[in-house]
Design brief:
globular
Length: about 180
């Protein structure tokens, strides 16, 4: 087994102001435990209460989406794993990022949804949210890229950023970042 240079990792985390990082299988109880740790970090960081609530809400939405997606696909723990990072930028904003394996067609649909939200201002995002709330749910259609994504965009102070990197077997690694 290759030795892990924890000091180099620590230095990189500190340079990038990473407060919390997780990589691996994600379960409901783990989402809750990491959420509790995140609340403690935000409290220790003296985050403004509204910013702390938004960071927490975005973290929960992202991780629950990953968990629901991998369960719906019937993927094993390795396939259903997530990478989650909460950090700060140079301006003191919090950045919540999460990524997971996804079918390429689903990933492209998500990229398109993120792109369409990027051009909307706060009033338009609010209108899109209300419109999505009123829209009847079609049980035959897969869920995703709807209300939760719009809510994340509403909480963000900048347009959402997303990437999709192809991996073998027709899948990709989808990453989403929100600046709070």
């Amino acid at each position: 087994m290759e030795n892990i240079d924890l000091f180099a990792m620590r230095e990189r985390f500190n340079d990038q102001r990473i407060m919390l990082c997780f990589n691996g299988p994600i379960t409901r109880s783990l989402i809750e435990e990491i959420g509790n740790a995140l609340r403690n970090y935000l409290s220790a960081d003296h985050a403004h209460p509204s910013a702390a609530m938004d960071v927490f809400a975005v973290y929960i939405e992202m991780t629950q989406n990953i968990s629901h997606y991998s369960r719906a696909k019937g993927w094993n723990e390795q396939e259903g794993g997530a990478t989650v990072v909460v950090s700060r930028d140079d301006d003191g904003h919090y950045i919540v990022s999460a990524g997971n394996l996804i079918e390429m067609t689903d990933g492209q649909r998500l990229l398109d949804a993120v792109d369409s939200l990027a051009g909307l201002d706060k009033a338009q995002l609010k209108s899109a949210y209300k419109e999505q709330l009123r829209r009847p749910r079609d049980a035959a259609k897969p869920t995703g890229a709807g209300l939760g994504l719009i809510d994340i965009a509403r909480k963000a102070s900048q347009p959402l950023a997303a990437t999709l990197q192809p991996v073998p077997d027709g899948r990709g690694f989808f990453s989403l970042s929100a600046v709070i």
